C-alpha cells in the first residue's frame, strides 16, 4: 500500500483550506496561489499544485459540452490604449448602463455575475472590485504583477508617455 501522500510544506488544515478555496472559487492555480499566500506565506506554486492533485481539484471543470472553450487572444497594444465597452444592467431602480474602460473582463466579473439592488450598492461593489483588481490581483501575462505595479513599472521605463505619476495611487497609510 505505501504511505498516504502528504505535504512536507502544508499542514493538513492548510491543505483542507486550499482545497476548499479551490472548490468554492474555481479560480485558476495562479489566482489561488496569490489569494492564499496572504494566509499561508510559505506556500509555493508547486506545493499548491501538488495539494490540488492530492485532493482531486487540479483540473478546472469543463463546460457543459465536455470541452473547454478555446481561448481568444487579444491583440497586444502598447500601454495607453483603452478597450471601451458598456454593459446594460437592471437594478430595482431601473435600467442602468455601465461604461467600462481598460479591463476587458470587468463586465463578466461584476454585472453579469451579481445583481445589485440599488445604484449605490452597485457603485460600492464596483469600487471594491476595482480596488482589488488594480492593487491585489496578480496577472500572469503581466509577469505576475498587479495592474498598478505594471503601470508604475512602465512609467519607470518610459516616463515620456505618461502625463501623470501613477505612484500617487499607491495604497498605503494616506490613501
Write the layout of secondary structure elements.
Blueprint: H1 12-25, H2 29-37, H3 45-54, E1 84-91, E2 94-101, H4 106-109, H5 119-135, H6 147-157
Antiparallel strand pairs: 1-2
Structure characterization notes:
This protein is mainly α and 175 residues long. It has helices at 12-25, 29-37, 45-54, 106-109, 119-135, 147-157; strands spanning 84-91, 94-101. It has two domains: 12-54; 84-169, no CATH class. It has six helices and two strands, in the order αααββααα. It is globular.
Please give a handful of descriptors for the protein shown:
single chain; 175 residues; mainly alpha; 2 domains; two-stranded antiparallel ribbon; 6 helices; 9% strand; globular
One letter per element, helices H and strands E, the order comes to HHHEEHHH
Report the strand count. 2
- The average pLDDT value, as a whole number, equals 79
Percentage of residues in helical conformation: 25-40%
Estimate the global geometry from the Cα principal axes: globular
Please give the domain count.
Answer: 2
Number of helices: 6
Radius of gyration: 20 Å
Main sheet makeup: 2 strands, antiparallel
- Strand residues, percent: 5-15%
Runs with pLDDT <50, length 5+? Answer: none
The secondary structure category is mainly alpha
Identify the strand order in the major beta sheet.
Answer: 1-2
